[in-house]
Write a structure and sequence with these properties.
about 290 residues; alpha/beta; 5 strands; about 50% helix; about 10% strand
Length: about 290
């Protein structure tokens, strides 16, 4: 029996370009969840803008979901940076915990109030990784680790406008294993290896923090499995995170367009030399993948 009174927040986490956006958007259609809307990133000091999220719960509004000015569920980073002066830090120093406790839970409460749904949902991918902090701020919080194979994730990262490759000289997230940099330099610093190393470093930190909070607090969701069968994937999430996946919700989910085949497109993106670089990187540093 699925408890109907579970109010624990659900956080979707991953390396970046892991497929979290589609899972987030699908879950945001469920009437249990409140979330940060795109409107709020333009004016992060006004949580009242989350009231616009209620449009998602109105009958017939699904057809407008992708229109330009319709509110969309987005990552919280710009909003949390506005409210928390230590948000960009990844450590658990006392001042980080104190600042976050004073700002983040009250903000979430305001968002839930204005949206009108009892549970908070968001995705936090890439860096900083905040799993340990969020677990401390929200006892009982549930984390969904969205996983994706290295090559399609690397391909997806290289296709986004904001990624420029490299940047390891100013890497702000701790020490990079020298073997990674030696491999990267020996291959001529190709952009596909820069992206792969970035993703692998993010994954290692995710795994470390997930291990720290314990196995009962998180679940792994392969992106390829979710795209292949979103209904089964959502039922699995509902059973684990305690939200009811009823027929009304499933009908909404079936009406939305999901783009299958994304994990095969990388094969056209990389040259034979790039494939060899990624194959060798996986063999050297990701033997269990």
């Amino acid at each position: 029996m699925v408890p109907s009174d579970d109010t624990s927040p659900v956080f979707l986490v991953g390396t970046g370009r892991c497929g979290s956006t589609i899972v987030y958007s699908c879950m945001a259609m469920h009437q249990a969840f409140s979330w940060i809307p795109s409107w709020l990133t333009e004016a992060p000091g006004y949580p009242v803008l989350a009231a616009g999220n209620r449009l998602w719960d109105l009958w017939g509004m699904d057809r407008f979901r992708e229109t330009r000015f319709f509110p969309k569920p987005v990552e919280p980073n710009p909003v949390l940076e506005h409210w928390s002066s230590t948000f960009r830090r990844e450590d658990m120093a006392p001042e980080v915990v104190e600042d976050s406790r004073a700002t983040i839970p009250p903000l979430v409460s305001k968002l839930q109030k204005w949206h009108g749904n009892r549970r908070f949902l968001t995705k936090m991918v890439g860096r900083p990784v905040k799993i340990e902090l969020l677990a401390a701020l929200f006892p009982g919080a549930r984390f969904v680790h969205i996983t994706r194979a290295l090559k399609p994730t690397t391909s997806s990262l290289l296709l986004v406008e904001f990624y420029r490759g490299g940047g390891f000289e100013d890497w702000p997230w701790g020490t990079i294993p020298p073997t990674y940099l030696e491999f990267y330099q020996a291959r001529g610093k190709p952009v596909e290896l820069a992206a792969a190393i970035t993703l692998q470093l993010n994954l290692l930190e995710l795994q470390r923090q997930l291990s720290a909070i314990g196995p009962s607090s998180w679940i792994s969701l392969p992106y390829a499995d979710f795209i292949a069968d979103p209904i089964e994937g959502m039922r699995r999430l509902g059973d684990w995170a305690h939200f009811t996946v009823d027929e009304t919700f499933l009908k909404r989910l079936l009406r939305r367009k999901l783009y299958a085949g994304a994990d095969e497109k990388w094969q056209k993106h990389f040259s034979p030399a790039q494939r060899r670089n990624l194959d060798d990187f996986e063999a050297a540093f990701m033997p269990s993948s």
